[in-house]
Amino acid sequence: MNISIRKSTEKDIPVILSMIKEFATYLGKADKVKISIEDLTKEKDRYHCYLAENEKGDPVGYAFYFYTYHTWTGKAIYLDDLYVKEKYRRFSVGTMLACALIDLARQTNCKSLRWQVLDWNKEAISFYKKLGATVGDDNLNCYYEIK
């Protein structure tokens, strides 16, 4: 299977939103997606996305990320979503997306690549460990919704 990875463009926003919704559904959180094409378009300078495509140019996965800064370590990439359509799992698409981000982090002098994984997602946890990531620490996630 021939998979290519590329940076998304503004014209890819509808595809990105579609996969965001697909990923949220997979996680059982479809009702949490509030973002729109208009939001993603208006805020396009605040995030980045890699798209994985098959030989026909159809999207099969994505990595949605942005740059952040941590007081203890400095510049980092925060990976908000890494998703591969079910049909394309087991073809190293996730590894290709992760490696593209790791390479980008090195090229842009980042000190780390960070993300979250749900504790029930054993396949993802195993995947991240195989990449060499540390999974789990003593931090708890906090969330405050602005209304």
From TrEMBL:
<dbReference type="GO" id="GO:0008080">
    <property type="term" value="F:N-acetyltransferase activity"/>
</dbReference>
<protein>
    <submittedName>
        <fullName>L-amino acid N-acyltransferase YncA</fullName>
    </submittedName>
</protein>
<keyword id="KW-0808">Transferase</keyword>
<comment type="similarity">
    <text>Belongs to the acetyltransferase family.</text>
</comment>
<dbReference type="InterPro" id="IPR051016">
    <property type="entry name" value="Diverse_Substrate_AcTransf"/>
</dbReference>
<dbReference type="InterPro" id="IPR016181">
    <property type="entry name" value="Acyl_CoA_acyltransferase"/>
</dbReference>
<feature type="domain" description="N-acetyltransferase">
    <location>
        <begin position="3"/>
        <end position="147"/>
    </location>
</feature>
<dbReference type="InterPro" id="IPR000182">
    <property type="entry name" value="GNAT_dom"/>
</dbReference>
<keyword id="KW-0012">Acyltransferase</keyword>
<dbReference type="Pfam" id="PF00583">
    <property type="entry name" value="Acetyltransf_1"/>
</dbReference>
